Amino acid sequence: MSGKKVKALLESSSHVVAFTGAGISAESGIPTYRGADGLWDKYDPNKVADAEYFSLDPAYYWQFVRDVRYPALRDAAPNRGHTALAELERRGRLRALITQNVDGLHRDAGSENVLELHGNTRRIRCLDCGGGYSLEALEERMRGEMPPACPDCGGLLKPDVVLFGEPLPEETLQEAIRQSRSCDCFLAIGSSLAVQPAASLPAMAKQAGAGLIIVNKEETPLDAMADIVLRDSASSALDGVLER
Ligand code: NAD
Ligand code: ZN
C-alpha cells in the first residue's frame, strides 16, 4: 500500500536523515522501555534511569546493568534494520543517523555518521579520576562488588549515558537539530517519540519542509503529522526501503 509513496518520497529526496529508538534493537534481543514487554514493567524508571537516584543508590543501577543490560548487550548483534541503515549510508542515500539508543549496534553494523543523543552504555567513566573503561573490561568487577569501583582510583563508575535530569551532549544535539532542519526526508524508526527533547526532532524536520516517515509497531503522538506511517517492524520496513 504505502510502498509507492515511500519510493516516491525517497526518490525525490537528496538529504535523508534517520532517527532511531529502542524499537530497532528489539529484534536484536534488547528490551525496549515503553511498549509491549518494555523494561518499565519490571524496573522502576525513577530508579534505573534517573541521575538523582543514581547518586543516592548507585548499586541499584549497577545491579540493573549487571543483570539486565550487560547480558543483553553482550549477546546482541545488529539485525537487518541496523544493517539496512548502514547500507543506505554506504550508497550515499543517508546523511546522518541520529539515535536515542545507547547500545552501540549502529556502529557495529557499519554506520559511520552516528549521533548518539543519549550516550553509550558500553563506555564507562570514573566520576572521580575521569578514567574510561569498556563495560566488558569490568565484567569480573561487577560480579565481585556493587557498585564496581574504578580500577585506578577506587572511585565511582558510571556508564556514559544520559540519565533523566542530565543534559544531552550539547554538540551532538546541535548537530542533530541542524541535520533535522536541513534534511528533505526524515525517517523515524522504532521510537515511541515520547521523550524530549529528542522526540521534537521529527516535528522540527516536518516544520522545515521535510517529508516525514514513521516506522513503529505502535501508535506515536506524531503519527498525525507524518506523511507516511508504517505500522511494521523496523527490520521488515527497512528491508522494503532498501529494495526501493
Ligand atoms: P521506547 O522504548 O520508548 O519505544 C520503543 C518503541 O518501539 C515502542 O513504541 C514500540 O512499540 C516500538 N517497537 C518495539 N519493537 C519494535 C520493532 N521490532 N520494530 C519497530 N518498532 C518497535 O524507546 P525510545 O523511544 O527509544 O525511548 C527513548 C529512551 O529509551 C532513550 O532514552 C533510550 O536511550 C532508551 N533505551 C535505549 C535502549 C537501547 O539502547 N537499545 C533500550 C531501551 C531504552
Ligand atoms: Zn577513577
Features:
Rossmann fold; binds nicotinamide-adenine-dinucleotide; alpha/beta; binds zinc ion; 244 residues; six-stranded parallel sheet; SIR2/SIRT2 'Small Domain'
Describe this structure in words.
- By secondary structure, the chain is an alpha/beta fold.
- The protein folds into 2 domains: 1-30 and 77-118 and 168-244, Rossmann fold (3-Layer(aba) Sandwich); 34-75 and 121-161, SIR2/SIRT2 'Small Domain'.
- 39% of the residues lie in helices and 18% in strands.
- It contains 11 helices and 9 strands.
- It has helices spanning 3-11, 23-26, 45-48, 51-56, 58-75, 80-90, 105-109, 139-144, 170-182, 200-207, 234-243, and strands spanning 16-20, 94-99, 114-116, 119-126, 132-134, 157-161, 185-189, 211-215, 228-230.
- The strands form 2 sheets. It has a 6-stranded parallel beta sheet, with helices on both faces. A 3-stranded antiparallel beta sheet has the order 5-4-6, with helices on one face.
- Helix 7 links the parallel strand 2 and strand 3.
- Helix 6 packs parallel to helix 11 and helix 9 (170-182) packs parallel to helix 10 (200-207).
- The chain is elongated and about 55 Å long.
- The model has no long low-confidence stretch (mean pLDDT 92).
- Nicotinamide-adenine-dinucleotide (NAD) is lined by residues 21-23, 25-27, 30, 32-35, 38, 100-103, 118, 190-192, 194-195, 216-218, 233-234.
